[in-house]
Structures are given as C-alpha cells and as structure tokens.
Amino acid sequence: xxxxxxxxxxxxxxxxxxxxxxxxxxxxxxxxxxxxxxxxxxxxxxxxxxxxxxxxxxxxxxxxxxxxxxxxxxxxxxxxxxxxxxxxxxxxxxxxxxxxxxxxxxxxxxxxxxxxxxxxxxxxxxxxxxxxxxxxxxxxxxxxxxxxxxxxxxxxxxxxxxxxxxxxxxxxxxxxxxxxxxxxxxxxxxxxxxxxxxxxxxxxxxxxxxxxxxxxxxxxxxxxxxxxxxxxxxxxxxxxxxxxxxxxxx
Length: 250
Description:
The chain is α+β, with helices and mostly antiparallel strands. Helices cover 17% and strands 42% of the residues. The chain contains four helices and 17 strands. The strands form four sheets. Strands 2-8-7-4-5 form a five-stranded mixed beta sheet, with no helix packed on it. Strands 10-9-12-16-15 form a five-stranded antiparallel beta sheet. It has a four-stranded antiparallel beta sheet with strand order 11-17-13-14, with no helix packed on it.
C-alpha cells in the first residue's frame, strides 16, 4: 500500500508541472520578444525597417542615369538633287524611360523605331530623340540625313574635252570633302581621272609616295544622276599606262 501512495504522489506532481510558474512565463515572454520587432507609433507593418535616409543611400547606389544607346536612320548620306520620301528611324535605351519625345512629338516609351512616310526631304534634315527617366534626368541624341555631291575616279582614254556623261562613267563616292585614296588599273592608252566639286578646293596628288603626277584638265558644269548641277574640276594623270596604281588625293 505505501508504494501505491508514492506513485499517486508522483503522477499528481507531473500534472501540476504542465503549467508554467511565474518565472517560466517571464522567460517565455522574453524569448518571444526577441523574435519580433515591436510596432512603433506612426509605422505600419508595411513600412521600411530602416529610415528613409538609409533607403535613399541604397537607391542612390543602385541608380544609373538613362542613356540613349543608339539613334540611327536608314538614309544617312544621299546625293544632292534627290528627294527622300521614306525614312526609318531606329533607337535603343539603356532602360525604359518615363517619357520620350521625337523632336516635339511625344512617343510611346515602348517604341524603338518609327517609319516616316510621305516625306519630301531635299535638304539636310536632323531629328532629335529625348528620353527622361524616373529621376527626371533627360538625355538627347540626334541622327541626320546629309545631302552631298560625289567625287568620281577611274580610267579612260586620253581626252581634252569633257561633259557630264564622261564623269558619270567613272566610279562615284558620296562625300563632303576632296580627300580620297583609290586604286585603279590603267591600261597602256588609259589615263587616270579624278573629278571633284570645284567648291571642295584644289587637289594635291600622291602616287607611289611621290607627290604630283596629275594636272587639272578642265572645269565644267556637271549634272549628276539626280539632276543637281554644279561646277566640277577634272584632273588627269600626266602619264598613261600606269597599270595597277594607288592614288592618294588631299
């Protein structure tokens, strides 16, 4: 019988120990507090865990101003006298802008190209693209169509008079200056010719590291393939039959 009484006493004590005493409850509250951030007046659960000042520092470190990576058109350099009816503009950004404009036209910020149709462009034309980011940083970039006349070079039989047809048979390069380096192959009876707008100025020649060897053979009013007229100077090599020759014009 005494043994049964002792067993009952132990079981009773175990039941009692299922409940926390004051010291245990205080310990539990302390551990629980360490797991959470107490709510502060004026802040909700969705507020920043750190101050706006520190948030701004982080934002500043991550911020990169917007840039226009490229802005181009599909025409660029065209011959004087021609008319451009259609142009396609293409561009790219470093990030999506808050707003964008093409000249004074507001653009959809998702656009990266624009086809311009029904144009009648006959003189130099420039477009300006602008983009503004989330911090109101604005950047611009331009693209342009430039109208120029050509310089012409090649070989032909000896000639003392010239017309537009003679020049048009030569090879053409559209450029706004007289300088050019080219290579031709002049047969036994052929001279090397170079024709350039008079307004580009007098030309100097270098052949095989030697200066000279060319003389201005004439000046005519030249009409190009697009119908534009202007004065051209025509230069001719002093000698015929120079074979494969590289000429530098300056």
